[in-house]
Design a protein that fits this description.
heterotrimer, A mainly alpha, B alpha/beta, C mainly alpha, B: alpha/beta, Rossmann fold, 2 domains, four-stranded antiparallel β-sheet, 6 helices, C: mainly alpha, 8 helices, 78% helix, 0% strand, globular
Chain lengths: 237, 213, 251
């Protein structure tokens, strides 16, 4: 009996060890290749700059557009960063080692996506008030903006990773990912930008955030399975 | 057939309308080294990927210790070391960091052995150098250090000696032989003439190819 | 193999492309005749005998195309997902082929639903396109179809392509209710109390019976085109097997 508990303990230890080892590796990778870290953020800023130039710099008008524009920009920059998630692992053969490991694949996948989110989605969330300022989003809207992005961007990363896993074996995965993933992003966009609008008009936020949280819970439960299956399929060709 | 580690029966695989092998069958006993031979494009790498479980595009049966491999996938993965065409080495990480992640992936490996393994492949003093400043051969060695860490009985090695110098090859051959003597098995492809005197069996894929259609 | 025994025998027969080719060959004429009769009868009934709508007059009659195509677009996606799941679980080649064959048909149904919606919108709302909840959901469904088709054509290996599309269509099927709900909710938020296209308070029987006939007719039409595409796909994929060669020599 004690033997069994010991081995169970050991296994649990090795699983959490794997989770943290993977996170650590992802952080090391992204901090040593800084362009991967910074490019989505610059893109985020640039997309938001296009709107005043393309539509109108008039503050009242921009304030009305701001929730949607910040959300669309965050969505596009997340999407832009997704292609790299598995591609370098695929190219250098690490993905083969990952798939042949006796450890549960979904755990490694989850660790990778969460690490990836914390350097993209979380960074976007922190940066969002700057864009809010540029687009004259009223100060009341800022908490709603940040909270909705905080709950919404992990879902975007998880769903985007499914697209990345499905296209990892293809040379030109970049455009294809957007075709696969953008329609799936629509609910998050709707609830996210509505949350910001509600915050601006002083309506309660709870319902929107609960919906975003529910989407996140669903994505956390199902996406790692879909990502793992997609990776196995992509690697088998 | 519990005395056989791996048994392959009636394996059939085609790629782009070309039959790579048909009715291929062999088995691997503990202590055997099997060298897969064949011309370029004869399907050596495909066979290695099928045996390792990466590719599922085949018909036929593969048994691991007498059980269908699909049903004992976890046990099989625990007992397998696969060395593929790409080394699986991240250029921006150091050899040590690379191997540490690999150790996390394979619970049987003791992370404390990493330094020793790196010494064995001649990378002492390079532990903290990012792999992109190492040569191609050295990068390959980082990956080969896994052979020294591994406790898995079955090794599937696809061209393990590419970009490795003569001295290194001799050391690796000695390692393979030692693995076999301890009761492990090796399936490998290589363009080198193996210098191993011992239980090496050759399987030529050119003879297994079906008639192309 | 023991775990498979609980499925009926025809299920495994379906797995054989040859058997599937033969059985669809037998079913095809029946469905074709049924589709022709139902669609012709339904159209004549709908256009000439069904009463005009008291609000929209005769322009509402496009409902007899719009509703069936919209229903079919959704059903085809469900079929794709079910075929995808079967293909992934039981590694059934025919299921992969069904998925691949159903995608373009479903996509064209979605286009038809969007086009008829737009044509209907012109006299009803005065513009070709309105961000109506149903039309928007249909547009997104069309995008989902495009994604599956793009993925399927981008991957060269046939069985990899089929499995990848299967995963994508399953992900899509989980998302469709969420998308539908979120779009409807977004719609009520931005356009309260618009006139809804199809939500009519209790349609009289003279109106919905021909609609039902058209829906069944569309299902038959869908079955016919699916079987035709499937048979093509079977012949193409099995072109190197003995039975296909025999078949070709016979013809």
């Amino acid at each position: 009996m004690t033997m069994q508990t010991n081995s169970e303990d050991l296994q649990r230890q090795s699983l959490s060890g794997l989770f943290w080892a993977t996170c650590r590796r992802e952080y090391l990778l992204s901090f040593r290749r800084k362009s991967d870290l910074v490019n989505p953020l610059i893109f985020f800023l640039m997309v938001a700059t296009l709107f005043p130039l393309g539509v109108s710099p008039e503050p009242g008008f921009l304030a009305q557009l701001a929730p949607g524009v910040v959300w669309v920009a965050a969505l596009l920059s997340t999407l832009l960063s997704m292609d790299a998630l598995f591609r370098s692992d695929y190219e250098d053969g690490s993905l083969e080692q990952l798939l042949l490991s006796p450890q549960p694949l979904f755990l490694v996948v989850l660790a990778k996506v969460l690490a990836h989110w914390s350097v993209t989605g979380l960074a976007l969330t922190v940066m969002a008030p700057l864009l809010g300022l540029m687009l004259f989003l009223p100060a009341e809207g800022m908490p709603g903006l940040m909270l909705s992005l905080l709950l919404g961007t992990p879902t975007l990363s998880l769903v985007g990773a499914i697209g990345a896993a499905l296209t990892v074996g293809l040379r030109k995965g970049g455009v294809l990912i957007s075709l696969l993933v953008l329609p799936l992003y629509i609910p998050v966009l709707i609830f996210g930008s509505s949350a910001v609008q509600a915050a601006v008009t002083g309506l309660p936020l709870g319902g929107y955030l609960a919906l975003l949280g529910a989407l996140l819970a669903l994505a956390l439960g199902l996406a790692p399975l879909a990502i793992s299956a997609a990776l196995r399929i992509s690697m088998s060709s | 057939m519990p005395d056989q580690l791996l048994t392959v029966q009636n394996l059939f695989c085609e790629r782009d309308d070309r039959v790579l092998f048909n009715r291929l069958g062999f088995s691997v006993a503990p202590g055997e080294i099997i060298q897969i031979e064949g011309q370029n494009g004869s399907g050596k790498t495909t066979l290695m990927r099928i045996l390792s479980g990466l590719s599922r595009h085949y018909e036929g049966d593969i048994f691991w210790r007498g059980e269908p491999v699909e049903q004992v996938r976890d046990d099989f993965c625990r007992d397998l070391l696969y060395f593929g065409h790409q080394a699986g080495v991240k250029a921006v990480l150091t050899p040590q960091e690379n191997l540490r992640w690999y150790a996390a992936l394979s619970p049987a490996i003791n992370a404390a052995d990493i330094d020793h393994a790196l010494e064995q492949v001649g990378l002492r003093g390079f532990e903290d150098v990012p792999c992109h400043s190492l040569s191609a051969g050295q990068n390959r060695r980082v990956s080969l250090a896994r052979l020294y860490l591994s406790k898995a009985p079955l090794w599937i090695l696809d061209e393990p000696f590419t970009a490795i110098d003569k001295k290194g090859v001799a050391a690796k051959e000695a390692l393979l032989l030692r693995h076999a003597q301890r009761g492990g098995s090796v399936i490998l492809t290589t363009h080198h003439e193996l210098g191993i005197r011992g239980p090496v069996r050759k399987i030529n894929l050119d003879q297994c190819a079906g008639t192309s259609t | 193999m023991a775990e498979k025994k609980w499925m009926p025998r025809w299920f495994y027969q379906l797995a054989s492309p040859r058997w599937c080719y033969q059985i669809t060959g037998k079913l095809l004429p029946g469905f074709a005749v049924a589709a022709l009769l139902l669609l012709a009868g339904g159209s004549i009934w709908a256009l000439m005998f069904a009463p005009a709508d008291y609000q929209q007059g005769n322009s509402f009659r496009i409902i007899y195309l719009h509703v069936p195509s919209a229903i079919l677009a959704q059903s085809a996606y469900m079929l794709m997902a079910v075929a995808g799941a079967i293909g992934l679980i039981w590694k059934m080649k025919v299921a992969d082929m069904v998925l691949k064959s159903a995608a373009p048909i479903g996509a064209s149904m979605a286009v038809l639903a969007l086009a008829t919606g737009a044509i209907w919108g012109k006299p009803t709302w005065g513009s070709w396109w309105v961000w109506d909840a149903r039309l928007t959901s249909m547009l997104i469904l069309f995008f989902l179809y495009l994604g599956v088709m793009a993925l399927n054509s981008a991957i060269e290996n046939e069985s990899t392509a089929a499995q990848a599309s299967a995963v994508l269509s399953l992900v899509g099927v989980v998302n469709i209710p969420i998308i539908k709900y979120s779009v409807e909710w977004w719609n009520t938020l931005h356009q309260p109390a618009t006139f809804k296209l199809t939500e009519k308070p209790a349609m009289p029987a003279e109106m919905w019976v021909p609609l039902l006939v058209m829906v069944i007719g569309f299902y038959c039409l869908f079955a016919v085109s699916l079987m035709m595409r499937l048979r093509n796909e079977i012949i193409w994929r099995e072109r190197r097997t003995g039975w296909v060669r025999e078949l070709l020599i016979k013809q």
